[in-house]
Specification:
The chain has about 280 residues and is an alpha/beta fold. It folds into two domains: about 170 residues, Rossmann fold (3-Layer(aba) Sandwich), CATH 3.40.50.620; about 90 residues, Pantoate-beta-alanine ligase, C-terminal domain (Pantoate--beta-alanine Ligase, Chain: A,domain 2), CATH 3.30.1300.10. About 40% of the residues lie in helices and about 20% in strands. It is globular, with a radius of gyration of 19 Å. Bound molecules: adenosine monophosphate.
């Protein structure tokens, strides 16, 4: 695996792949890799000739009170995981390489960026879109891989790619979970042992909602009430939002029918976790 830190070298390496007739699959990450990230690497390996993974803790997507400085970082461990998966190139730029002091240009996806997580994280999706567009321009992948774990992010990036006519196909892959159902996240390691045990309530409450919907319940307020009730029984959980939205514009859904997105954000101590479920088609 080749590790590259500069934009110029990354562009050269990507051009070399293309001139050799090789397609590029790209997996953007913030590192501290887990099975969720590695599932994206495997999907890329299976569908493209050359897999580029980026590790970049993107300062532009963190608010001033958020965890940029303490976000977990472990280059050696991540690098070993990626070699194990057979990734071809690791792009690992410094913040100053991506954002020189005179950097001025940002990408916003209007309306979508203000929903769900955007309400309490103003500027977050602007930071995500900006860095992902930059990375797409540097790497020029045919395919790029994202996790359904960050459902709003995936939707916003798809909109950006469509609106800017980008020549990249976005592939959104299923949420990878711990054996007890907690969605894998680099932030799970912030949790105290008690909060880690409590956090299974996220997936459990989504599963209870899915069961109620399978049983015929379609009223969004009732399903949301059910989820809030279960979360509320867990003293460690502090709800930020529980919403059922239609999965295109992220507006409140009139029913809890197939294709709707149930999304939630919940704090355990200072750690903010998200999870979601797309209501499956009937039968
Ligand atoms: P991050 O490093 O958290 O920015 O995540 C990088 C990519 O991995 C994003 O596309 C995430 O949606 C995806 N990802 C993170 N956690 C999971 C998970 N548990 N299952 C699937 N994909 C994930």
């Amino acid at each position: 695996m080749l590790t590259i830190a500069t934009i110029a070298e990354m562009k050269d390496a990507a051009r070399a792949e293309k001139s050799a007739g090789r397609t590029i699959g790209f997996v953007p990450t913030m590192g501290y890799l887990h099975e969720g990230h590695l599932s994206l690497v495997r999907a890329s390996k299976a569908a493209t000739d050359s897999t580029v993974v980026s590790i970049f803790v993107n300062p532009a997507q963190f608010g001033p009170q958020e965890d940029y400085a303490r976000y977990p970082r472990d280059f050696e461990r991540d690098s070993a995981f990626l070699i194990g998966e057979g990734a071809d190139i690791l792009f690992f730029p410094e913040a100053a390489e991506m954002y020189p002091p005179d950097f001025r240009t940002f990408v916003e996806v209007e309306r979508l960026q203000d929903k769900l997580c955007g309400r309490t994280r103003p500027g977050h999706f602007r930071g995500v879109c900006t860095v992902v567009l930059k990375l797409f321009e540097i790497i020029r992948p045919e395919k790029a891989y994202f996790g359904q774990k960050d459902a709003q992010q995936a939707l916003i990036l798809k909109k950006m790619a469509a609106d800017f006519n980008l020549d990249v196909e976005l592939d959104v892959r299923p949420i990878v979970r711990e054996p007890d159902g907690l969605a894998m996240s680099s932030r799970n390691q912030y949790l105290s042992p008690g909060d880690r045990r409590a956090a299974v309530v996220l997936n459990r409450s989504l599963e209870a909602a899915a069961a109620a919907i399978r049983g015929g319940e379609r009223r969004p307020d009732v399903v949301i009430g059910l989820i809030r009730g279960l979360l509320g029984r867990e003293p460690a959980a502090r709800i930020e939002y529980v919403e059922i939205v239609e999965a295109r514009l992220l507006e409140a859904a009139p029913d809890a029918g197939p294709g709707r997105l149930i999304a939630l954000a919940v704090y355990f101590g200072n750690t903010r976790l998200i999870d979601n479920l797309i209501i499956p088609a009937e039968g």
